[in-house]
Every structure is written in structure tokens, then in C-alpha cells.
Amino acid sequence: MDLPKRLIVEYEDGSTKAVEFKELSPQARIELSRSGLCPPPSEPEVSKHYILLQWKDGWKEVVRIDKKAPELLRYYTVERVEEVGRMALESGEDYPVLFLVKRLPRQIETLLIVGPTRVEGYTLEEKRTVKEGNKIEHILYDKKDSYPRQRNEGWVAELKERLKAELKKKGLTAEKLLSLDETQKVQAYREISKALGLRGMEKQEDVYGFMQLMTEGLLALKQ
Predict the structure, then answer these.
(1) Tens digits of per-residue pLDDT, 158-185?
(2) Nearest by Cα to 188 from 21, 64, 27
(3) Residues 115/159, Cβ–Cβ less than 8 Å
(4) What angle is formed at CA 64 by the lines to CA 71 and CA 176, rounded to 5 degrees?
């Protein structure tokens, strides 16, 4: 079945509204596929690395980064009328990769860069402030200041243990989960990530890709 271009809703008065099909969430596509209107969403694409942010209040977010060896270059917040966090990462290219953190940017406790074979952890604590006109920068991490880096695999190991527990509740193993068809797999990732308290910083598909990376990690431990 070919992929639809757009979804059109027609109202009783004859008027219509349309949305590009590629803008629909995986969950919406799952529901449409069950009605035979479209193919199921494709298997989550696993990125090279993911960034995990954990706030002091327990909130967690995931964002993918398609770079070979990212490393935290600087984390700081910019305070004007409202405060936004700026996360800059080195990636071996001319310019750093920049992400904006809008949720309580000075309340992030831990930042981890997670790849298939490594985990780099950073504890974010305010070190100094820089005032420039009506702008105030709160520096929580800067590579040039040579703050000690933490390996911090413990948090990811704990997450994998919780993942195994959630799989057990569903009568699944890592191997069985990875063998599911695309629709079943996305649905399982959606339910398990919700139980683990993982949310996408920019889009939920990042969480599903991260879940697949963690599941593949569990399977690798058995081999």
C-alpha cells in the first residue's frame, strides 16, 4: 500500500479540512492502519546518539542527535523576559549543534549522552553569571572550565532494569519485542515509555528510537 499524501475531513456542510499525512503522529497512523486506510508506521529509526535530560522534579526528556561523537560543549540559560536553556554540543564539525530547553532550564539535574557503546554524564550546577545589557547568562556547564565529567552508566543501567521489569509485565523479552511488527512495536514503545516517564523534547518519535536502542542493548547483554 502506498503512503497517503494527506488526510481530509469533510463536514456536513460540505466544507473540508486537510492535514499532510507526514505530520500525523505514529499513534494516529496506527489507528488509521487498523481501519485499513493506510499502512502501519515504519519501525522507529535508531539514531547514533540520544541526549537524556533529567530534572530535579523527576521529569525526563529525550532528544536524538545524528552525530558520531557528540560532547557537551556548554550549557547555559539566557534570561530576558523569559528564560530559555541553550545546550551546545561539539560534533566534529565547524559549528556546534544547538538545542533550546524551554522547560525549567535551570532545574535540570543530569544530562547524559547515550550511544550504542558509551554513556557520557554531566551534572549541571550554576557556576557563574554573565550580564550583558538586559541579558543575563547563567553558566551551568562550559567545557573550557574543565569540570569533571561523570561516566554515569548507573542511571542508564537502572533504566534498563526498569525496562526489563515493564517487558516482564507484558510477557515480553527484548528479543520478542524486537520481533514484533511495526504497529505492535510502536504501540509497545508508547506504553512502556509512558510507564518509564520518558517524553520527547521535540517529538515523540525520538523516544521510540531511544527505546529501541535500549532494547537492542538488553539483547546484546545476553549474547
Answers:
(1) 888 999 999 999 999 999 999 988 888 8
(2) 27
(3) no
(4) 120
